[in-house]
């Protein structure tokens, strides 16, 4: 691993994202020894005029680490590594001061061999990305003679449609090279998302099955059981498609659908993801259902007549040899009946079924991303049970005696049971570590981003122009009934329980 001084600069340090995600992730990395105090220093930068201690006090309550033997002592030591600098996002003065402070720290560590590394984390709204990047480029780049690097990390939303995203990309692209830019999609840091390629390409089971001959449909679902909660103003400008589907769910789709990369080099993996995105056909209006939960507009920051969807089901179709004819049903919603993110791969029915038990549901492979990470397969097996109340399928229940009957069962890998005592790292933790290590595999490349916007921009424009309206749904429900009807029409068969 690289050595030498590492400065991590969190811009937007007094904001929500920094407080809830960035600093806690840094703290977890610190507790595991990934941020050695003799090499690392952390700077918070924002407009608010506060002291170092003010910032430390603001974030202290969010630093939780169940892997640490003495969490509060660790938190205190970690907080001592943080210094605050205040300044504007477009003026020279603040960034000159920031550079001075970083350099001071680098000089104080100069007894160490090695280069100096500067990681700028923009926990900021994208409207200020261009000016902040300009300031960093002008005043705050790594100047060490011993080498090292300057990298920037940016968060979604990267634009609002194809044009604005491309504009943003070119503005940043004029200042930094692609290998210096880390576009975070935190879904790519989730344990089971990171597992997808291994699962698909290291298991003989899946190789012959993973195609249109065997798979009937794929559903990728995100549900939250709470509404926009204080983020109404932000959310209303973007809506569920820009907030969740165009990025998080589409990234998952890429990993489910892509061809095997020629190697695990980040560029080769991202090449394959781009190909999938470029093969997606234009979305048809009749394959979209939009919803808005009742009560959404009661939020004072949301306009009374808002047309913004808080729920959407969108069917994507991939035009290639592997996937022609297989619907990818992407579904996301706020204020629903549960909190869950999962991938459900439904296989086709067995031809020439002699057991007459197709009603019990299909073979299905489910990857539950959260909560309670798990992978399980639904299979049909010979039944041991004859308790007709345990299954809602009287026609397929075993009769007393030795008759053959079948039941649907699971082959289950639940992470909490299988890996007891092992803490699954937070998405942000892994991704920040990747930025320090210089591994771009789990970050979105510029051409990927462009292709993702190309898919959704026409639909988003129709929604923005009021040509498509969301259907109201009750808070705590499954979303509009029309969405279930659409999934069923696409071939999805609702399975039972589990
Ligand atoms: C964010 C969205 O990207 O992801 C939020 O902006 C959403 O609206 C969040 O709540 C969900 O993340 P997770 O990791 O809790 O599923």
Automatic annotation (TrEMBL):
It catalyses: D-glucose 6-phosphate + NADP(+) = 6-phospho-D-glucono-1,5-lactone + NADPH + H(+). Its EC number is 1.1.1.49. It comes from the Eukaryota. GO terms for biological process: glucose metabolic process; pentose-phosphate shunt, oxidative branch. GO terms for molecular function: glucose-6-phosphate dehydrogenase activity; NADP binding. Residues 9-195 form the Glucose-6-phosphate dehydrogenase NAD-binding domain. Residues 197-492 form the Glucose-6-phosphate dehydrogenase C-terminal domain. One of its GO terms (cellular component) is cytosol. SUPFAM superfamilies: Glyceraldehyde-3-phosphate dehydrogenase-like, C-terminal domain (SSF55347), NAD(P)-binding Rossmann-fold domains (SSF51735). Pathway: Carbohydrate degradation; pentose phosphate pathway; D-ribulose 5-phosphate from D-glucose 6-phosphate (oxidative stage): step 1/3. Keywords: Carbohydrate metabolism, Glucose metabolism, NADP, Oxidoreductase. Belongs to the glucose-6-phosphate dehydrogenase family. Catalyzes the rate-limiting step of the oxidative pentose-phosphate pathway, which represents a route for the dissimilation of carbohydrates besides glycolysis. The main function of this enzyme is to provide reducing power (NADPH) and pentose phosphates for fatty acid and nucleic acid synthesis which are involved in membrane synthesis and cell division. This is Glucose-6-phosphate 1-dehydrogenase. The gene is gsdA.
């Amino acid at each position: 691993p690289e050595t030498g001084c590492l400065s991590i600069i969190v811009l937007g340090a007094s904001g929500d994202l920094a407080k809830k995600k960035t600093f806690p992730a840094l703290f977890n990395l610190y507790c595991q020894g990934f941020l050695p105090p003799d090499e690392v220093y952390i700077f918070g930068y924002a407009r608010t005029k506060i002291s170092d201690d003010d910032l430390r006090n603001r974030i202290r309550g969010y630093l939780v680490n169940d892997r640490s033997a003495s969490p509060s002592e660790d938190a205190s030591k970690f907080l001592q590594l943080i210094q605050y600098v205040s300044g504007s996002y477009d003026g020279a003065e603040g960034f000159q001061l920031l550079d001075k402070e970083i350099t001071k720290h680098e000089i104080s560590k100069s007894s160490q061999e090695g280069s100096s590394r500067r990681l700028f984390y923009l926990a900021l709204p994208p409207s200020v990305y261009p000016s902040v990047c300009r300031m960093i480029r002008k005043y705050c780049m790594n100047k060490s003679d011993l080498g090292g690097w300057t990298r920037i990390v940016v968060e979604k939303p990267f634009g609002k449609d194809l044009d604005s995203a491309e504009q943003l990309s070119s503005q940043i692209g004029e200042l930094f090279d692609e290998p210096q830019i880390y576009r975070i999609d935190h879904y790519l840091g989730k344990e089971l998302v990171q597992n997808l390629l291994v699962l698909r390409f290291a298991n003989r089971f899946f190789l012959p099955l993973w195609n249109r001959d065997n798979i009937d449909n794929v559903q990728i679902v995100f549900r939250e059981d709470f509404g926009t909660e204080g983020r109404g103003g932000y959310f209303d400008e973007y809506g569920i498609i820009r907030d969740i589907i165009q990025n998080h769910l589409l990234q998952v789709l890429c990993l489910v659908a892509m061809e095997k990369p020629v190697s695990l080099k980040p560029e080769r993996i991202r090449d394959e993801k781009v190909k999938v995105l470029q093969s997606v056909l234009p979305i048809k209006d009749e394959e979209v259902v939009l919803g808005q939960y009742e009560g959404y507009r009661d939020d004072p920051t949301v306009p009374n007549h808002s047309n913004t969807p808080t729920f959407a089901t969108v069917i994507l179709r991939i035009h290639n040899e592997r996937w022609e004819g297989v619907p990818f049903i992407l579904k996301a919603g706020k204020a629903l009946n549960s909190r869950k993110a999962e991938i459900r791969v439904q296989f086709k029915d067995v031809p020439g079924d002699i057991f007459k038990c197709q009603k019990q549901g299909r073979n299905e492979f489910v990857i539950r991303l959260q909560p309670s990470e798990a992978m399980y397969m639904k299979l049909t097996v010979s039944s041991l049970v004859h308790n007709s109340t345990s299954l809602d399928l009287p026609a397929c229940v075993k009769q007393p005696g030795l008759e053959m009957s079948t039941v649907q069962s699971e082959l289950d890998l639940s992470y909490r049971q299988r890996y007891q005592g092992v803490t699954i790292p937070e998405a942000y933790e892994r991704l920040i570590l990747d930025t320090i290590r210089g591994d771009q595999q789990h970050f979105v490349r510029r051409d990927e981003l462009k292709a993702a916007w190309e898919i959704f921009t026409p639909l988003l424009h129709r929604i923005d122009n009021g040509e498509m309206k969301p259907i109201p749904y009750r808070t705590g429900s499954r979303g509009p009934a029309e969405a279930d009807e659409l999934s069923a029409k696409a071939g999805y068969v609702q399975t039972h329980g589990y």
